[in-house]
Amino acid sequence: MKLLFYDDFKLGALKGDSVVDLSGAVSGIQHTSPQDLLNRLIENFSQHKAGLEAAISSGTGVPLNSVRIRSPLPHPNIVAMAVNYMEDGTREAPAPINAFQKSPNAVIGSGDTMVLPDVPATIFEGEAEMALVIGKRASNITPENAFDHIFGYVNFIDGSARGLEPPGNTFYQMKSRETFAPMGPVIVTTDEISDVDNLQIRLWVNEELKQNFNTSDMAHKIPRIMEWVSSIHTLEPGDVVATGTNHRGLSAFQDGDKIDLEVEGLGTLHFNVQDDLKRTWARETRLDRADQGLEGTTPQISGKYT
After folding, report:
1. CA-to-CA separations, 272 to 205, 253, 263, in angstroms, rounded
2. What domain range is 32 assigned to?
């Protein structure tokens, strides 16, 4: 099942190239917001699954290109894993397991715009990731039952404003900027993904492939992620856990960019980038720089804070 929100945050399902309205199937769920509706639906999914499937089967839907797609998770709690890939074997050992939180106010959906703020970042990057959508309350769980607590998967971008001062005190202001958490277009339920440990993740900037890696390269696998995060705080239905990225393909996001992210089986997330300051960077990736024997990210070329 592929769930989404569209137009004025109606709940729908993707059926081929059409969107089927599921409002009637969830009309009995009392809720205070679209995210609350989704959380309650996920928490009691076994009670609603048959009704949803019937609505999808019988519904004709409307063309996908005739509606405005919203984030399938409008305002979720977000945990994002840090340095969680082996970087195509270039890391000798996994980095210590680590994570951070991103503000729910950073979320945007497919077709929306990431806005680069007027701050002295050395570079703005967007990390291609697969994220988990929590389906069942998780507290101090074991790796063996980790997947029992996952409802589905979603494309996720971890936007970053790097190099802000002071050093060592940057994660919050780097990661939680508004519009810095694009996700979508759909939540794909776990039953539709046969091998989550072998999914190709691709990100294009202006139709040029920049990131291209596989979830098999993940350093701390999903069971360990779930065990570790749930040992720190409880995860609730509708929460999001982003699983990290391979940094070697990262490049600068800048004004006018068209971004496409595709995690295998999860559809394609499209969004734009806007920078009113029109700052520019070279288009090289971190891997390009490494191949030239250069360290760090590519420097800013023009604009404020050069």
Report:
1. 10, 10, 18
2. 2-66
